[in-house]
Known about the structure:
This protein is mostly helical. The chain has 20 helices and six strands. The strands form two sheets. It has a three-stranded mixed β-sheet. The protein has a three-stranded mixed β-sheet with strand order 4-5-6. The protein starts with 12 loop residues before the first helix and ends in a 5-residue tail after the last helix.
Amino acid sequence: MEKKTENPVMPNYVREILSIVEGTAAPNKIREQLEDYHENDIADALELMPVSKRQKLYRTIDINTLSDIIEYCEPEKAVQYLSEMDIKKASQVIEKMEPDSSLDLLNLIEKDKRNALIALLDEETKREINLMASFDEDEIGSKMTTNYISVSQGASIKEAMRTLVKEAPTNDNISTVFVVDEDETYIGAIDLRELIIARENTPLDDIIMTSYPYIYGTEEIDDCIERLKDYSEDLIPVLDNSNRLIGVITSQSLIQVVDDEMGEDYARLAGLTAEEDLKEPLIMSIKKRLPWLLVLLALGLVVSSVVGIFESVVSELTIVICFQSLILDMAGNAGTQSLAVTIRVLMDENLTVKNKVELVAKEMKVAFSNGFILGLIAVLALSFYISVFKHAALFSAVAVALCIGASLLVAMVISGAVGTVIPLFFKKIHIDPAVASGPLITTINDLVAVVTYYGLSGLILINMLHIKI
């Protein structure tokens, strides 16, 4: 029998890095040893070092590596590390970072120090940061980088290769070369492989992909994600409103954008006004959660007031209060399921009115089918429970169980419709459908379920059948 091999244990690189920095080796030796480690691991190690050791590291490694390390740090930590450097070195680190990362960090630094840092930046970095700052945070241009290579449409293959070789050492994104005219107007893209294997006498136009996907910097991030999800390109060109090439979105940035958007959607579905993390200050977490909680409190008071209207039903038929949570929970679950499906479907920007009608109809059919099955199970189970454990007459037990089953069916159908229609309505009036969050849908469905349950109980069991249990 072949012996099963255990999974190898991941080496503790952080511990090794700490040992190197805390050692007594010469700076050039430390620099040489750290070249074997990824910048992300060094960033993790920074947090475990005392300030004196971090400052030793800042003095030891080169600016390019230091800027890469800082980019892997959490923004708040990165700002702290920059404050531990002298202002000249901090400005050099910012210059080597991607413009979007530089802008994010500068926005977190207090105004006086931020202005002092900006004054020390070179003109190209200032121009790039100003370009990034011209976009709103929900526009895709705020996530782009100016790290790309472009060639002139009139260049020969040889000239294009010369440009590539010259600029490649200072550019990370060389898998695709972009083509522009004399006014920087975007023409198309060239795959690096096609450029390398092309013969010198081949016209550049022959290898330009004019149908290569592109986006405008002012487009909404959500819209861009939907459009680009079917492409597997490493780089997507970003244009201004005059079709001039101003930057690119990398596949890594796109993944980060999708991750950020998912985090924001989950936050909204939880009733938060923004995403938060474990290290966020208490007061900030309270500010993000309180607004929706106040809205839900108001809606909860409405639900409680409605229950008060049916006080006479509860006093004459006390058993119905035992099964209120059953109706509320199942209605809420049905509504939340429909909400999740609807928000996912609404990611398709090509959704027609017919598609939306079909979606509502389908969700109501699903809710009806599930409600019928669950209602039938509830009738059988509750008939037995009420007659045996509550010692009620069989007729009364079955009647109450049928009323609960019918309420369950009606509440689930209406809740399924509410969970579909509300996000569709929000989308129609240009509000993020994720704002139609789980807590909001659940509260509305509670109101629907309470009215349905107590309304049917009062009408059928008390007024028509005169049952009292």
